[in-house]
């Protein structure tokens, strides 16, 4: 079935094809010829063109080169223009005129246009017939003057008639008296004659209006030009068609991309390019797609894109609609822009917040002694860094409370453990104290002094970042029953020796010397190998060169450890630390708090108890240190004596920290050198201790004065 249709189609093509190829069979691309400034498009051609350049001799035009520029003619009619697009030609036709004198017509000319034998007809739609005069009948006759149309104009001698002689432009004569016109022109006229008549031989108006004119003109107004020999001519539009056949009779009679339409007033057809195509539709090539985009931007908005027979105006990205009419923001864009605007707004608000925070931080930084920092080679921590490290100062991470701040355990990147000390107050005094600590500690580089890693000054309250010392305070180990670390005299001795060394360093080697002012067991930290680390320098003072601190300085330190001489003299010296250290020694040896309450509520001073025990040779009653050997017993006595000397009421009677350190280190050294002999038990127990410690880590601070 399908095959049959195919065969039939092929057969049909074979039958039809020869006839289809009949008409514009020739190649006219070389024929487009000029006459002067007029082009002569196919199906028209010039006399000297070869025969394929015009459809038949009726379309053969002549070019008279005796004119400059040369003029195009058919028969004796000058052709002003030929348009393939509208299938029209514009020709010049002299006006008809009549002039009168007292005895009647003085001179008169009628005009005829004979299109017989030519493919032209008078355009019925594009021309207007006009007559100008005040006693005037204009006649447009056709087909042998038996039939015709016309118009009549009558007016008195007060009407001034426009003198159209020599006028070569469009005029609008019939807007006034003295003119008449008609547009009722029949279709398909091949012959016209234009005449003028007068009702009264201009008898009454001769003076004002001796001459009448009549003409057929293109358009609604008079299109007049100066004709040859000082005549006035008008432009007349002619239609033209091709052939005496119809579109359906011959296939492909027009070129490519064209439509064929039958003439509605004569035999013949017309070819026209499809919309959006241009070219000569009567030639084989026919019409080609116009690139609308090559001309001046045809799009109202967007990017012009040529398509076959048309063009599109693509709206810019994010816009919708037809760019020919105008683009509007697409819904998606609106959403995106809306979202974008929202995000921008949020971002802006965040930015402002960030700026504000930053400003506050900067302000704090300034306030918190950013200048101080300049001298120190400390790391300047960011507040966010520390907030993160301490899980926003989680209470569970609180290690303890010092005199001037809380200490939190933190870890940076889960790697480096730190202790963050956060100032307790935001008042200037507290902050100064805090910064004082930073200043002091930063000047100490001793293995038995807890190391300051950095500061954070941008936060509202300044923060100090210390190395994390994992094994708690000496105070904890003295009093916690779970702690077995101090069950070894060697360790006890080592811890106090190291502490003494640190204090000695601060007193003697630091420049300027530093008084800790708050020496007590809870300020002595123990690291993983139970090495002592002196901490909490909030109350410490750098002693200026004149050695003493002005008496106005308020006492800072912990009751029970505090140098009583200070209350009398108001003078704080390194001997104050010696006093404190003496109390520490006593505490360690006796496992008693420096101040406690007796059964009847009376206040008991360890210093008094210890001193009197020593004086009364009753030390055994207060000592609670594990002594195994004779030597250890001797050592304890030496240390107890040292402790009592340290807490002498008069600072002059107290040994210096150097002396204390020498004694303790001397004792400690003996154990160190003999340690090789000792069993490994101690070390094993130490490690066990470490495990216990890390499981029940707890800090204890005494309250401050
Ligand atoms: C017509 O002739 C021109 C050269 O004169 C040639 O370029 C063109 O392809 C020809 N067209 C056809 C349809 O034969
Ligand atoms: C036709 O005649 C004009 C003027 O005489 C000349 O310029 C033109 O080249 C001629 N055309 C042909 C095809 O001979
Ligand atoms: C050209 O025009 C002139 C003046 O109107 C006329 O004398 C001449 O015969 C014309 N020539 C042709 C070839 O028609
Ligand atoms: C000829 O007619 C076409 C179409 O009407 C017009 O575009 C062109 O300007 C005309 N040429 C002259 C010289 O009047
Ligand atoms: C007008 O003049 C012509 C002669 O020129 C004459 O035959 C005619 O009768 C006159 N008509 C009138 C109305 O005077
Ligand atoms: C009017 O014109 C005609 C023809 O030109 C002439 O014979 C006649 O003498 C003229 N009459 C007057 C009064 O000039
Ligand atoms: C028009 O011209 C043709 C020949 O060109 C002629 O046969 C015909 O008689 C003319 N018609 C008129 C009305 O003069
Ligand atoms: C116009 O005509 C009137 C009579 O209708 C006459 O009296 C008058 O003089 C004329 N005017 C002119 C300027 O000819
Ligand atoms: C019209 O004007 C021309 C010159 O522009 C002149 O020669 C002619 O006499 C005038 N005609 C009338 C009726 O005034
Ligand atoms: C030219 O063709 C037209 C129709 O296409 C026809 O009427 C006319 O007789 C033809 N003229 C000549 C000279 O072949
Ligand atoms: C061409 O003809 C088709 C149908 O014959 C019509 O739909 C279309 O509008 C025509 N195009 C032009 C440009 O005349
Ligand atoms: C060109 O495209 C527009 C829509 O963009 C349409 O309205 C118009 O009819 C098209 N013209 C042609 C010739 O297809």
TrEMBL record:
SUPFAM superfamilies: EGF/Laminin, Protein kinase-like (PK-like). It is a single-pass type I membrane protein. GO terms for cellular component: plasma membrane. Residues 393-672 form the Protein kinase domain. One of its GO terms (biological process) is cell surface receptor signaling pathway. Keywords: ATP-binding, Disulfide bond, EGF-like domain, Glycoprotein, Kinase, Membrane, Nucleotide-binding, Repeat, Serine/threonine-protein kinase, Signal, Transferase, Transmembrane, Transmembrane helix. It comes from the Eukaryota. Residues 243-288, 289-328 form the EGF-like domain. It is found in: Membrane. The chain crosses the membrane at residues 335-356. Disulfide bonds join 254-271. One of its GO terms (molecular function) is protein serine/threonine kinase activity. PANTHER family: PROTEIN KINASE DOMAIN-CONTAINING PROTEIN, WALL-ASSOCIATED RECEPTOR KINASE-LIKE 21. This is Protein kinase domain-containing protein. It comes from Aquilegia coerulea. The lineage of its organism: Eukaryota, Viridiplantae, Streptophyta, Embryophyta, Tracheophyta.
């Amino acid at each position: 079935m399908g095959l049959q249709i195919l065969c039939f189609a092929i057969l049909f093509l074979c039958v039809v094809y020869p006839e289809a190829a009949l008409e514009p069979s020739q190649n006219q691309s070389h024929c487009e010829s000029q006459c002067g400034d007029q082009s002569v498009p196919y199906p028209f051609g010039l006399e000297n063109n070869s025969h394929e350049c015009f459809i038949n001799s009726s379309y053969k035009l002549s070019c008279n080169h005796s004119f400059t520029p040369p003029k195009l003619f058919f028969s004796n009619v000058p052709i002003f223009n030929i348009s393939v697009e509208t299938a029209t030609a514009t020709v010049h036709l002299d006006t008809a005129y009549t002039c009168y004198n007292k005895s009647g017509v003085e001179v008169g000319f009628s005009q005829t246009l004979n299109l017989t034998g030519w493919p032209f007809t008078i355009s019925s739609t594009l021309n207007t017939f006009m007559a100008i005069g005040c006693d005037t009948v204009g006649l447009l006759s056709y087909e042998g003057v038996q039939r015709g149309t016309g118009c009549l104009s009558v007016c008195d001698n007060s009407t001034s008639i426009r003198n159209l002689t020599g006028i070569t432009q469009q005029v609008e004569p019939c807007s006034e008296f003295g003119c008449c016109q008609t547009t009722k022109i029949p279709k398909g006229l091949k012959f016209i004659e234009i005449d003028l008549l007068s009702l009264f031989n201009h008898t009454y108006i001769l003076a004002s209006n001796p001459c009448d004119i009549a003409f057929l003109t293109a358009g609604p107004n008079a299109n007049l030009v100066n004709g040859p020999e000082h005549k006035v001519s008008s432009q007349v539009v002619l239609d033209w068609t091709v052939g005496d056949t119809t579109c359906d009779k011959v296939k492909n009679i027009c070129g490519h991309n064209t439509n064929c339409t039958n003439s509605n007033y004569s035999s013949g057809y017309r070819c026209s390019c499809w919309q959006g195509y241009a070219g000569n539709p009567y030639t084989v090539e026919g019409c080609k797609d116009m690139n609308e985009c090559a001309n001046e931007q045809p799009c109202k908005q967007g990017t012009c894109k040529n398509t076959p027979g048309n063009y599109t105006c693509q709206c810019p990205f994010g816009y919708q609609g037809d760019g020919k009419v105008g683009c509007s923001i697409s819904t998606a864009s609106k959403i995106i822009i809306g979202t974008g605007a929202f995000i921008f707004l949020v971002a802006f608000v965040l930015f402002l917040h960030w700026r504000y925070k930053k400003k506050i931080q900067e302000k704090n930084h300034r306030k918190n002694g950013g200048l101080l920092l300049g001298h120190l080679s400390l790391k300047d921590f960011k507040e966010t860094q520390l907030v993160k490290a301490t899980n926003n100062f989680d209470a569970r991470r609180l290690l303890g409370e010092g005199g001037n701040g809380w200490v939190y355990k933190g870890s940076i990147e889960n790697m480096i453990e730190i202790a963050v000390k956060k100032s307790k107050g935001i008042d200037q005094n507290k902050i100064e104290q805090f910064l004082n600590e930073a200043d002091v500690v930063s000047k100490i580089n001793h293995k038995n002094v807890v190391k300051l890693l950095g500061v954070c000054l941008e936060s509202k309250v300044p923060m100090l970042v210390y190395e994390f010392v994992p094994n708690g305070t000496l105070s904890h180990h003295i009093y916690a029953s779970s702690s077995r670390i101090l069950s070894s005299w060697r360790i006890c001795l080592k811890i106090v020796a190291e502490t003494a060394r640190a204090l000695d360093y601060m007193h003697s080697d630091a420049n300027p010397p530093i008084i800790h002012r708050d020496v007590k067991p809870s300020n002595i930290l123990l690291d993983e190998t139970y090495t002592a680390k002196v901490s909490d320098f909030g109350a410490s003072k750098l002693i200026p060169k004149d050695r003493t601190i002005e008496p106005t300085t308020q006492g800072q330190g912990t009751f029970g450890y505090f140098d009583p001489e200070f209350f009398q003299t108001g003078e704080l010296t390194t001997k104050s630390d010696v006093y404190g250290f003496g109390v520490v020694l006593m505490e360690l040896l006796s496992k008693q708090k420096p101040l406690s309450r007796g059964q009847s509520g009376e206040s008991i001073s360890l210093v008094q108890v210890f001193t009197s025990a020593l004086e009364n040779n009753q030390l055994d009653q207060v000592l609670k240190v594990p002594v195994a050997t004779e030597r250890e017993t001797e050592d304890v006595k030496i240390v107890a004596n040292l402790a009592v000397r340290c807490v002498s009421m008069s600072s002059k009677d107290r040994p210096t920290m150097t002396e204390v350190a020498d004694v303790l280190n001397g004792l400690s050294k003996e154990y160190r050198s003999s340690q090789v002999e000792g069993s490994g038990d101690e070390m094993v127990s130490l490690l066990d201790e470490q495990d216990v410690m890390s499981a029940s880590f707890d800090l204890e601070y005494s309250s401050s004065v």
